[in-house]
Structures are given as structure tokens and as C-alpha cells.
Amino acid sequence: MRKVVVHSAGGYDKLRVEEHPDPAPGPGEVLIRVAAAGVNFADTAVRMGLYDSAKKYVGWPITPGFEVSGDVIAVGEGVSAWARGQRVIAVTRFGGYASRVVVAADQVFECPDDLELAQSAGLPAVFLTAYYALFELCRLRRGDSLLVHSAAGGVGSAVLQLARHEGWRAVGVVGASAKVEAAKRMGATHVIDKSREDLWARASELEPEGYDVVLDANGVSTLRQSLAHTKEAGRLVVFGFASMMPHTGRPNWVRLGLDYLRTPRFNPFELVGQNKSVMAFNLSYLFDKKALLQETMGTLLGLVRSGALRTLDVLRFSVDRVADAHRAIESGQTVGKLILTFGE
Ligand SMILES: NC(=O)c1ccc[n+]([C@@H]2O[C@H](COP(=O)([O-])OP(=O)(O)OC[C@H]3O[C@@H](n4cnc5c(N)ncnc54)[C@H](OP(=O)(O)O)[C@@H]3O)[C@@H](O)[C@H]2O)c1
Fold it and tell me: Under CATH, which number does the domain 2-123+311-341 receive?
């Protein structure tokens, strides 16, 4: 098998493609021949050694990757739900960037028939993230308003599709004009292009009373204003800190430190007084909640099968170009989803 291994924290050169013996599935596990693995922004933080749950669950060396698609080539003892040859999607808590992946049987899901296998690798992480924020945490109601940053990216596109399906007013914010059309196609009712217009003036113009929900994975660059632009009883969901990240592959420690200090700390007295909530989560800590994972993936794949949701536009990189994939997602210019293909 081939897998991407990061032996120590660093830049793009740390992403080594190595040959290893094929793994064997243990009891309750499934061995998948991987067609494609999803690339997430978080993988770049894993590579740089900045991702806490990677340290908690794996350490060094690490193979990044939260999701794969492929076909089952073997099952371990006690697995009856899966059989050789089935087309599947699986979630992995790290380890996804590999041509063979062993994963617990209850983290494996049937790939919808009419979906291209490779493209479906990009579904789980972004839709699970969007779904958890919107349905588990925020419980929006029809007609509610939502503002989502990085609206043309992976998670942003998933949020917009779910919002359209539910009938929520969704304002998407993008950092480049080339992304406006993509955000509209995904379901944004309005798109704010912050490279050309004043983000917060326009956000207020569109929803003068504020938003029921703001989803913020930028961190320091927008967090304070994101909370200020929620309405009374509004919810701010914090789920990433992308604006602290470099475009060069290596962290700038001085800037990281300053951004860390500048990141707002929310005051519980003020939150109660303003009747607003701040929530936060990280999907990688939720993998042990098997019932939640099963229920959510079941719902999402049902929506995909019915045509209510569709796979995102994907940008493909063969595994040998994994460094280019990281460079691309770190550039902040990509639209939709990035995947690594294994060409088997
Ligand atoms: N907590 C969780 O469980 C969880 C799960 C999945 C994703 N996330 C977070 O959600 C965000 C989106 O993830 P994704 O994988 O779907 O990525 P993505 O949105 O496809 O790409 C990241 C986007 O972040 C924006 N950005 C802001 N500052 C940036 C910087 N300094 N460098 C690069 N990009 C920057 C860019 O969009 P604009 O310029 O258009 O804003 C960029 O396109 C990330 O922050 C990620 O860490 C969190």
C-alpha cells in the first residue's frame, strides 16, 4: 500500500509518500481499497503539528485524513454488514491518506449508486461539520437567517446546501470575487465579497437586526464582529481559526502568538446580558459518538440519494501531488472540495 506519512511537524516537504505492507482487518474492522481521500483544511494544521486531537489520538508519525471512498476488499471477524466488492465511504480519525485503510465497520457507509466513487470521498467531513453545527447545536427554524464565512469552501458549500434545503436565509461571505458564483450555486441567498465590499456594513444592510446564527471558522479576523452581528437569542458557532494560518506551509510563530492573544475571550456576564450564545466544537472528538455518526450519515446520504444535496465540485490531485493539494488549500483560493486519488 501507499500512504502519506508525516514524521515531524513542518512544511510541504514533510508529506512523504511511502510504501508499506497492506494492513489486515481485525475483529469488527473492514479493509478498504481507497479510490480517493478527502483533503481538509485541518490536515494542514495536522502537518504543522498544530492540531490538538492529532496529538491526543496519534502523535508522530501521522498519516492525515478524515475520509475515504473505495471498495471493500476484506472484512474482519464478526463483520456481517459489509462484503468484498461493496462501494463504500468511510470516516477515519486520521489515516485517510492511504491506498488501503482499515476502519471500524460502524464508520463505513454505502456509497450511493449514482455517485462517482472518487467524488464521494469529499462528502463526509464537510457535511458532518455543517450538519452538526446547524442541526445539533443551532436548531434553526424555517425563515431564520444565517451568515457563513468562507462560503465557497468545503464546509461553507455544505452549509449553504443544507440552508437552501431547509429554507433558511443564508448570507455567504467569500474572500475573492472568483468565488461569488460558486457560493450562489451552492445556495447563498446573498454573497458578500469581502475583497470588494465592506463585509460588516453589507452584512448589517442585508439583516439590520442581525443574524440568528453566524458560523465562524476564521477566528481572530472576524470573531468579535461575528458575535456583534448575531441578533438577540442569536448563536455564534466557532469551529476553526483559519485566519491564523500561513500561506507558506510553515507557521509564523510571532504572528501566531499575537493572533492568539488578540483572539476575543467572551464574557459570560455580557453573553447573558445580551442573550446570545457562543458555541464551539471539533468533529474529530465526536467520532466516538457512534449513534450520532450513524444517524447523521444516514440522514445526509438519504438527502444525497434524493437529490436534495449534491457532492461538491472537486479538485483532484494524485497522491504523488499531495504537497500541491496542501499548497492549494492553504492558498485560501480554492472552491469546493479537494481530494487525493490513488489511481487503482
Ligand atoms: N471544528 C471542526 O470540526 C471543523 C471541521 C471541518 C472544518 N473546520 C474548519 O472549517 C474551515 C473550513 O474548512 P474546509 O476544509 O472546508 O476548508 P475551505 O473552506 O475549503 O478552505 C479554507 C478557507 O478559509 C478561508 N481562509 C481564511 N483565512 C485563511 C488563511 N490564512 N489561509 C487559508 N485560508 C483562509 C479561505 O476562504 P475565504 O477567503 O473565502 O474566507 C479558504 O478558502 C477551516 O477553518 C477548518 O479548520 C472545522
Answer: 3.90.180.10
For atom 17 of ligand 1, the residue with the nearest CA is 41
Whether 341 and 314 have beta carbons less than 8 Å apart is answered as no
Cβ of 334 less than 6 Å from ligand 1? yes
CA of 150 to the centre of ligand 1 (A): 6
**Ligand 1 site, residue 243, Cβ cutoff 6 A:** yes
Topology, domain 125-283: Rossmann fold (3.40.50)
Nearest-CA residue for atom 43 of ligand 1: 332
Is residue 266 classed exposed, middle or buried when 0-12, 13-18 and 19+ CB atoms within 10 A define those classes?
Answer: middle
Question: pTM higher than 0.85, yes or no?
Answer: yes
Q: What is the pLDDT of residues 192-204, one digit of tens each?
A: 999 999 999 999 9
> What are the extents of the domains in the chain?
2-123+311-341, 125-283
- How do residues 235-244 score in pLDDT, each as one tens digit? 999 999 999 9
